[in-house]
Amino acid sequence: MVYHIVNVVVYIISITMAMIGLSCFRFENYIKPTKIKEFYLFYIVASVALGYLFASFILSFGTLSFQI
User: pTM surpassing 0.85?
Assistant: First the structure.
């Protein structure tokens, strides 16, 4: 049970960190004003994808170090 809670917390933190990291780039300069909704959809999907990849790496690295 604790393992699942830790997984969810790590995924949420990773997605939040990805959103903060992506917010550093100034994408507004490259977007047409009529495509703001599409950009936010892309922003959310990219944040979830990057956060998932980072969290998977952290969790697998953590379980690998415990097995050795």
Answer: no
